[in-house]
Amino acid sequence: MNRYFATCPRGLEALLADELAACGAVEIFPAPGGIRFSGDWTVCYRANLESRIATRILWHVVKGPYAKEDDIYRLALRQLWPNHFAVTRTLRVSTTAIKCPLKSLDFVTLRVKDAVCDRFREDTGERPNVDTRNPDVGIHVFLTENECTLYLDTSGQPLWQRGLRRASVEAPLKENLAAGILKLSGWQPGTPLVDPMCGSGTFLLEAAQMALDRAPGLDRTFAFERLKSFAALDWAAIRSAAEARVRPPAALPMWGWDSDERAVRATRRNLQDAGFGGLVAVGCGDACEIAAPAEAGILIANPPYGERIGEQGELAAFYPQLGAALKRHWAGWNCFFFTADQRLPKGVGLKPGRKTPLYNGALECRLYEFRMVSGSNRRT
Fold first, then answer.
1. Residues 133 and 196 in one domain
2. pTM given for the model
3. What contacts 233, CB < 8 A, 6 or more positions away?
4. CA-to-CA distance for 100 and 145, rounded, in angstroms?
5. CATH number for the domain including 9?
6. What are 12-67's pLDDT values in tens digits?
7. Are 143 and 15 found together in one domain?
8. Are the beta carbons of 66 and 115 closer than 8 angstroms?
9. Are 187 and 251 part of one and the same domain?
10. In principle, which of 60, 118, 176, 306 could form an S-S bond with 3, CB 3.0–4.6 Å?
11. DSSP 8-state class, residue 228
């Protein structure tokens, strides 16, 4: 039984715990920004393939106390790294910390890299090369006030990189955050879904994958395939089972609009490249003018945050128009807006039924829910 830590956007830990349990994980313990869990290698393979929420799946190698950098070096030096990966594999070490008293995390990273290479040199007479851009193997160092944990990355590129979104517009939402927002909205395949500010189509791409029961990792490779523990037959069986359950393409009750023609082109291209061309209706349109395409459903949008000078005034004018449009066109729909701008509810003149704190990277945001029942949402 191995121990792992799965990272995710803050605020989505409970959703990730449910996903990991469905993959067969046990001893599931939430932590800020992730989940600790246990399982065999097949659980690790499934989690990487199936999780829509996780950012990385890290395999726990060792934990030990430290007071100075030399303690961390010795902890890393004692590990049998040549048992885990070949000396021909390239390597990158990264370090994160909470309340760490040491002066330089970069120096910690250097010392762990030295320890790994020294271990290889002692055991094999050779040392692995370092590749900071696209390594075969990633070692993650996590420091608390007095403990150091070493992990091997089983994912490689972040799991939100599905390999589907090749065309993008400014500041696209990461796929795992978009998937989490879809799940928090309560959207289910078959329910009408609209994104009136679709950007490069991230919400639509994630929803289409869910609707067709397509595992998010089917179009990519993983770092666990480069570890010595890799069981190719087990992985082939897991991947084949995921491929076999994908539903055949069919028109989906999903619609995307954007006022920027470049965004519309990017969304159409991404859907086409992902194999979803023609399944989702996408067009150019103003979010305040669009009429609901069905009597009820879920509307999800990631409006601009107004972080640049000059945009604050534009948003102040936009919000009342958006609120009026919601009341006029979207009765019977549940409307969700993900934003870092906490003025949005007051600006649109609606009281949110729910506001869920989430983080877009380090940026604190909210997911606001407005249930559009005629006449009942106006502020008194």
1. no
2. 0.93
3. none
4. 5
5. 3.30.2130.30
6. 999 999 999 999 999 999 999 999 999 999 999 999 999 999 999 999 999 999 99
7. yes
8. no
9. yes
10. 60
11. T
